[in-house]
Amino acid sequence: MDIKSMKYSLYWLYCQFELITCSYLMEPWEKLLFYTFNITMLVMVLYTAYVFVPVHVSTAFQFFLHLFGNQHENTVSVVK
Prior knowledge:
One of its GO terms (biological process) is ceramide biosynthetic process. Its main location: endoplasmic reticulum. With 80 residues, the chain is mostly helical. It has one domain. Helices cover 74% and strands 0% of the residues. The chain contains two helices and no strands. It starts with a helix and ends in a 13-residue tail after the last helix.
């Protein structure tokens, strides 16, 4: 894919985004507020997923290991 067609594809996607969100009807200052809000929300969701999803997956994995009878790694074995 050459640069010209990629540039055209990105422009086409941007136009589709403006049509779907009706942001082509907004004034420039409204677009700035709208895009700033949307980007802020996207960054917050991605950060939250990055921080909390691995913790929840790890907890669920440990729960299912315990449910099926496997021992935890930090369990001390009793030696006779």
